[in-house]
Amino acid sequence: MAGALLDAELRALIERYGFTGFEISSNGGIYDGAPQETWAGEFDTTGMQFRARLA
Amino acid sequence: MNTSSFGSAALDTDALGEVIREEYTAVAEDPGRGFHFHTGRALAERLGYEPAWLDALPASTLASFAGTGNPFRHGSLQEGEHVVDLGSGAGVDSLTDAAMVGPNGSVTGIDLTPAMVVKARRAARSLNHVRFELGSFDDTPLPDHCADVIISNGVLNLVPDKHAAFAEMRRLLRPGGRLQIADILVARPVGDGAKRDPRLWAG
């Protein structure tokens, strides 16, 4: 989990590597109820999925 | 020791690879053991996977599912498409891809953990348009522009060099191809101390 990106970091990578049409949606607290919940909560960790197209 | 900079922290990437292989070998071979993250069918249902997709999978494959999202939330795959699944694990997403693209398409799953590749190959042995290879997200054994779609689920956060990961995805995709990626995000930056600890990457 320590390697997770911030939203702004992800968006910067998408743009830098030539992807367009970025769409993202959240799954909220993906670790809720798991042993990792407390650690994940310290960083407001959320699950997500995105789509983007190579220009 | 190989290192990578992510933010300002130096990380022992060899150690990270070992930690990941250890963790996900356990997910492949002993999925009922219990992990610090959710696994299995209940997780997939929570993430919005269609019951019909899950019913079509071997129970042992589904038990080793450890995704963080649903790569199909923003759209299904089309018949005949060529798909690369980076960090394919036990093969839940790859086998779902295979059903969507059909025999005129293809699916290639890449995973760092040998036990996952073995398990996924076993599940796909009757499918001629699906294959699994050992490799890393950012250094696959695949040719340029071979993919219409790149799928991944819960793996990008485990790649130490995010620039290498995006460069590899760009190399693999044909022009106009798309990413359908699930992963995690943090809303507050992780400190350098945690970023140097491989166990906090895999955990």
Characteristic key phrases:
heterodimer; A: 55 residues; alpha+beta; two-stranded antiparallel ribbon; 2 helices; 3 strands; B: 203 residues; alpha/beta; 5-stranded parallel beta sheet; 7 strands; 22% strand; globular
Compact overview of the structure:
Chain A contains two helices and three strands; from the N terminus they run βαβαβ. Chain A is an alpha+beta fold. The mean pLDDT of chain A is 95.
Could you characterize the architecture of this molecule?
The complex is a heterodimer of chains A (55) and B (203). With 55 residues, chain A is an alpha+beta fold. The longest helix of chain A has 10 residues, at 7-16. The model of chain A has no long low-confidence stretch (mean pLDDT 95). Chain A contains two helices and three strands; from the N terminus they run βαβαβ. Chain A has a two-stranded antiparallel ribbon. Chain A is 29% helix and 38% strand. By secondary structure, chain B is of the alpha/beta class. In chain B, the strands form two sheets. Chain B has a five-stranded parallel beta sheet with strand order 5-4-3-6-7. In chain B, α1 (13-29) packs parallel to α6. In chain B, 36% of the residues lie in helices and 22% in strands. Chain B has helices spanning 13-29, 40-46, 51-55, 59-63, 92-101, 114-123, 162-172, 192-195, 198-202, and strands spanning 3-6, 9-12, 82-86, 106-111, 130-134, 147-153, 173-186. Chain B has nine helices and seven strands, in the order ββααααβαβαββαβαα. At the A-B interface, β1, α1, β2 and β3 of A face α7 and β7 of B. β1 (5-6) of chain A pairs parallel with β7 (173-186) of chain B.
